[in-house]
């Protein structure tokens, strides 16, 4: 893939990979800028139904014009693959920062506020991230936070507040697949139940806890109970509310 030309994009180097494909740094030879290319695996690119849903969902994400959300520039067909063209965000991800130790409160608060702003903007459009974690959050050198890799969710709302409706995603079309990263899954998400924006609230609390303590919460993704109490003592009230075991308490 490195050295390949995909439309106007010259692939320069590999940035990483995940469950939904590989990510490359590329040069836009028309607009003279660098972008990120997410190349979706052939198993997705060959499924016409999933491609159609993916493109609709990509359009919805493209409509999210927010300073704390990495932008999607377009979708390109490349032989047997589908390529997502995205804003290239420089800087280290939050997981790298946390690996150096707990983040001081005065540094953590601006980061937390920007993550919350990004989630609120997405939720207002009925988009649920479903995989919020430190590795999907980048902090640029100027302090700007960018939330990456939104879950390409499609709202299945049944009420007036679309963001509160349950959602599905292309990867959820496979029987038995649970989307997300286990350490940051809400109890309902870990059990494979329909999720709404409160799953993101749980993950946000887990990220905030990890920032402030330098360690993951020890009881993330425990099965829910009827209790309205939070899953464990947490050092801030915000974490406690966000990680309440009952969705109605978040």
Strand content: 15-25%
Q: What's the alpha carbon Rg, rounded to whole Å?
A: 18 Å
What's the shape? globular
In which range does the helix fraction lie? 25-40%
Write down the secondary-structure element order.
Answer: EEEEHHEEEHHEEEEHHH
Q: In the CATH hierarchy, what is the superfamily of the largest domain?
A: Transferase(Phosphotransferase) domain 1
Uncertain spans: 158-176, 220-235
Distance between the termini: 44 Å
**Could you say how many structural domains there are in total?**
2
CATH topology of the largest domain: Transferase(Phosphotransferase), domain 1
What order do the strands of the largest sheet run in, or round the barrel if closed?
1-2-3-4-6-5
């Amino acid at each position: 893939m490195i050295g390949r030309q995909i439309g106007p994009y010259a692939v320069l180097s590999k940035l990483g990979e995940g469950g939904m494909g590989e990510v490359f740094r590329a040069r836009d030879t028309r607009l003279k800028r660098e972008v990120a290319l997410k190349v979706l695996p052939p198993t997705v690119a060959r499924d016409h139904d999933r491609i159609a849903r993916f493109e609709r969902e990509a359009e919805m994400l493209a409509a999210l014009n927010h300073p704390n959300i990495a932008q999607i520039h377009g979708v390109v067909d490349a032989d047997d693959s589908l390529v997502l063209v995205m804003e290239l965000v420089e800087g280290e991800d939050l997981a790298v920062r946390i690996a150096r130790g707990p983040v001081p409160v005065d540094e953590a608060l601006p980061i937390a506020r920007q993550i919350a702003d990004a989630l609120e903007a997405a939720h207002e459009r009925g988009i649920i991230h479903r995989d919020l974690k430190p590795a999907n959050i980048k902090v640029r050198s100027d302090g700007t936070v960018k939330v990456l890799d939104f879950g390409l969710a499609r709202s299945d709302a049944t009420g007036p507040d679309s963001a509160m409706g349950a959602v599905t995603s292309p990867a959820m079309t496979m029987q038995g697949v649970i989307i997300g990263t286990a350490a940051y899954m809400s109890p309902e998400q870990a059990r494979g139940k329909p999720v709404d924006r409160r799953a993101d609230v749980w993950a946000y609390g887990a990220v905030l806890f990890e920032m402030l303590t330098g360690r993951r919460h020890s009881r993330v993704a425990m099965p829910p109970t009827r209790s309205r109490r939070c899953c464990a003592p947490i050092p801030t009230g915000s974490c406690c509310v966000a990680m309440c075991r009952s969705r109605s308490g978040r």
